[in-house]
């Protein structure tokens, strides 16, 4: 199609402000879906996404829209995820668009990720259309929301379109605005092919699927293409667009987005951000790529049943094909046996991977306490990176430890500032800036150690602000900090999988809280179990799980075999998520006790 009749746009918003609901509504309006096909949030294709109501992967959908000028327009909508853990996906999507709809919930107003995403879009040179959503809510305040958009985002909001994605009110005017206010793509369909890979994944039936934006030229079925970063060549087998059902096409041309399948066997060859060109007639320049995604949070994954280790490896390999932001390598633990050290973008990402492993691959897993990666300079001048506490060097050989630091931007109402300041100070935060972005909204900018954020910061922030605070963060260098390894001893034996890295000044309190939490989580056994926290040889906290006599069969008064079996089965069920360490059964929760410290 002639690029003047194409519009590529993303929808960006703070989490829960209604992107997915609005996307569905736009699809419905353009007739991309029949009512029978209309299922809540079709864009969130994966079951898990639907259940949790979050969008993990960016998706793109083509809609055809007949505008008021009587012409047909091709609108390519790129959905983006909203959770902080996945903000890198947002930048990828934006690189393939000329415009963005900035959705703001009229009852909540501008939140931290509204700002973060809007700035990303502005820095990518996108034209932004503010959309004020949820105007059906009694608490909606359109004028106030407009004022906030102008003051904090710095965008004119007079013409912001006020809609209810839920009821459909006024949503149709968004389509007309997309056509009249967002710019069409530039690009020359006759030039050599130059296309950007902005996503790729492995599909069990079709192999590697690449999502691409054609900048110049044409991509045709049967064409021999070259990936410019590695020089590899492949033949295009099929291509198409999602409407959101897949529709097969013969070619994609300048300005369009779509997917293609080629003779690519390995998803690692299709690096996101790479440039695709035609082998016979290559373009001159590569497009600017994307930064490599880095894992920020690390945890060990082990199977409860050690025989399932190979299954876990297979499952991890399969998941990794779809998710380049996730990494793993084998590790072993004296307590848990063979497992994998996995890297994630954040805690939510960890939870999602763990849940998928359990659900899609029926694995019972033990996850160890999540932590970050430290850079250690040794007294002999050598350097190493450690993300696994059991690899922590002998303290006498450590010169300095550098821990990753983030810059967090927290947006909240003024009445919660006091609570939040206390929270960030408790988490070793250093203040950078505090400013009012509207009469009652305050933006706090703090440097915080990632290691403190990983644990429970997000949940704590929500609770101290009653949900009226939002967070966005970026990695911002390192601090030299006195970090120490804290071991946990169960029945006098150190359990390597329970060790964590803590700041020396916080070790005592953290140790006390941790062993007391573990005492609640470790069930009473037939004998007394001591739980201790220690730094080196020094025990800093201790609790005891008292013994019980537990003989379920005694209750059966002899004869009744079926009841006896039922009881034994029940007991077995209860043990499912237990890992026997030495003589003690430790439940999964105890390995994650560090996340639960401070909860009731
Ligand atoms: N009352 C009302 N609720 C809405 C409206 N739009 C969306 N919602 C609700 O707001 C919640 C979040 O909507 P989603 O569309 O899932 O939000 P999202 O921004 O896509 O969230 P993520 O995909 O997780 O980033 C859902 O419960 C929707 O039903 C609206 O116009 N009015």
UniProtKB/TrEMBL annotation:
Class in the EC hierarchy, top level: hydrolase
Domain spans labelled Tr-type G: 4-186
Binding site for GTP: 16-21, 133-136
Keywords: Cell membrane, Elongation factor, GTP-binding, Hydrolase, Membrane, Nucleotide-binding, Protein biosynthesis
Location relative to the cell: Cell membrane
Assigned protein family: Belongs to the GTP-binding elongation factor family. LepA subfamily.
Xref: NCBIfam families: lepA, small_GTP
UniProt protein name: Elongation factor 4
UniProt source species: Granulicella sibirica
Gene symbol of the encoding locus: lepA
